[in-house]
Design a protein that fits this description.
Number of strands: 19
Helix content: 25-40%
Shape: globular
Largest sheet: 7 strands, mixed
CATH superfamily of the largest domain: FAD/NAD(P)-binding domain
CATH architecture of the largest domain: 3-Layer(bba) Sandwich
CATH topology of the largest domain: FAD/NAD(P)-binding domain
Strand content: 15-25%
Radius of gyration: 22 Å
Length: about 500
């Protein structure tokens, strides 16, 4: 019997998960990736013996990744080595450092030390959010291909727990009084590229997930997940072509029949899975005039996440600092307002540092380390000329790092440096507006109102990645791939 053929555009985590599952289910799978390596934003950046994760560095909900490998008939531990982290990360305020832990006794002790009298709030948070999580997870795992899916029993049961009209920050007021303690449970809004004052309250499940199951590091970097998925795809007979950009989707009367490569070659298939950045794909891979709901004009009216300014440093020193450190601006609300409302570069910035070599010696030569610095900044809607601002802003970031962390001499030990701006994300990495977390996750862009896994505007076209349901972040991207793969099998 001839196998049904599937083409996957993009070898990011969503595309590779779909490829792995569908190849195991006996589909003829071909993946076309524009970059020289697999992984997309989950790929490795390598330079002179140093290895960096290009994007995600937090592995939450490791059980979902395990389930994806099981869907492909594999045991994830046969491919990857995991290292649980404790503490999960250090939160640095101007006047105190909070070590966040998934060990509830340790976390209570931290709250007692830094926010005396607030310890009871942790138990209330864990109890109620565990309840909420039980109702919300089934909603995340459902597809919303038509209006009637909104009437599904899991979603109807979850409705009382969605807390519409409340923000993540407001919702934390149920448990805690101190503003800095609330902020200690809002860092996770970064995964969605949103301000905690705008992020919907339902996403309180994100800090709950961290406190319930913790965070892991993958030896070699989280990029190894993509490498291992690619290995499974090939073991199952799937084909992955890197350095092979897709120029456009081949569309006939509203149905996607295949893809045209930049080489001019046309390749046809029964089903097409698009793992490219959603808005980039609709703007660049689909000819003008075909789409209505997601036309180029309408995409410009959508709300997109912030961007990030990245500095990757290979240094000839080891720093005695936590694996993950988040430094919060002294006036965090103004910092968020600058990024999301005023759309200007922040004067007092918040930033994240990964000091992964303290956990993983494989990432750098002996006695040296990799330093990953991420600064949330406005996306490309902002009137910022990054060709002018890049060097100045980089030096400003390094100055903040030297003043607010133990890395006081960081600039004296740099051997390798790579910088990525929102302009780079847009032009070099094909991310619409440089919005690294895709479409924002406000209520009007969630569930049925987010681009659907079985894309509503084109037949034979399925979406995976952060721009479709359930949204941004590795676990939800894996779920998008599972949903789309199951929809293809059902058809």
């Amino acid at each position: 019997m001839n196998k049904r053929r599937v083409i996957i555009v993009g070898a990011g985590p969503g595309g590779l998960t779909s490829a792995m599952i569908l190849a195991h289910r006996q589909f003829d799978v071909t993946v076309f990736e524009a970059d020289p390596t697999v992984g997309g934003r989950n790929s490795a950046l390598r330079a002179e013996g140093f290895t960096f994760d290009r994007g995600p560095t937090f592995l939450m909900m490791q059980f979902i990744l395990r389930e994806m490998f099981e869907k492909a008939g594999r045991n994830v531990e046969d491919y990857l080595e995991f290292k649980p982290l404790d503490p999960l990360y250090c939160l640095k305020f101007g006047d105190r450092n909070v070590l966040v832990s998934a060990d509830h006794d340790k976390m209570r002790a931290q709250i007692r030390e830094h926010f005396p009298g607030e310890e009871k709030g942790l138990d209330e948070f864990l109890h109620y959010e565990r309840w909420r999580y039980g109702y919300l997870l089934p909603c995340i795992r459902k597809h919303y291909s038509n209006f009637w899916t909104l009437m599904s029993m899991p979603l109807l049961k979850a409705l009382p727990y969605l807390s519409p009209g409340r923000s993540l920050f407001q919702n934390l007021g149920r448990y805690f009084r101190d503003e800095k303690l609330k902020l200690s449970f809002t860092f996770q809004a970064k995964y969605l590229g949103m301000s905690p004052w705008e992020c919907p309250a339902l996403f309180t499940i994100l800090p709950f997930i961290e406190h319930e199951w913790g965070i892991s590091h993958v030896i070699g970097g989280l990029n190894q997940i993509s490498q291992s998925m690619a290995k499974v795809v090939e073991e199952e007979g799937g084909k992955i072509f890197t350095s092979t950009p897709v120029e456009s989707l081949i569309i006939d009367a509203g149905t996607v029949r295949g893809v045209k490569l930049t080489s001019g070659e046309k390749v046809f298939a029964d089903h097409i899975v698009v793992n490219a950045d959603f808005a980039y794909a609709m703007s660049n891979l689909v000819a003008p005039g075909i789409l209505k709901k997601y036309s180029r004009d309408n995409l410009q009216k959508k709300d997109f996440s912030c961007s990030v300014f990245m500095i990757y440093l290979g240094v000839n020193k080891l720093y005695n600092m936590n694996h993950h450190t988040i430094v919060l601006a002294k006036d965090y609300r103004t910092n968020m307002n600058d990024i999301f409302k005023e759309k200007v570069l922040p004067e007092d910035m918040s930033f994240y540092i990964q000091n992964a070599s303290v956990t993983d010696s494989t990432l750098a030569p002996e006695g040296k380390s990799t330093i990953y610095i991420l600064v949330p900044v406005p996306n490309r809607i902002a009137a910022v000329d990054w060709t002018v601002e890049k060097e100045h802003f980089k030096h400003k970031v390094l100055e903040f790092v030297s003043k607010r962390t133990p890395m006081t001499d960081l600039r004296d030990h740099i051997e390798v440096e790579r910088t990525v701006t929102p302009l780079d994300w847009e032009e070099k990495h094909r991310v619409y507006l440089g919005a690294t977390f895709n479409l924002s996750h406000k209520f009007s862009q969630l569930l049925y109102l987010r681009p659907r896994n079985r894309f509503e505007e084109l037949d034979n076209c399925y979406l995976v990645g952060g721009g479709t349901h359930p949204g941004s972040g590795l676990p939800t991207i894996y779920e998008s791939a599972r949903i789309s793969s199951d929809l293809i099998c059902k058809k």
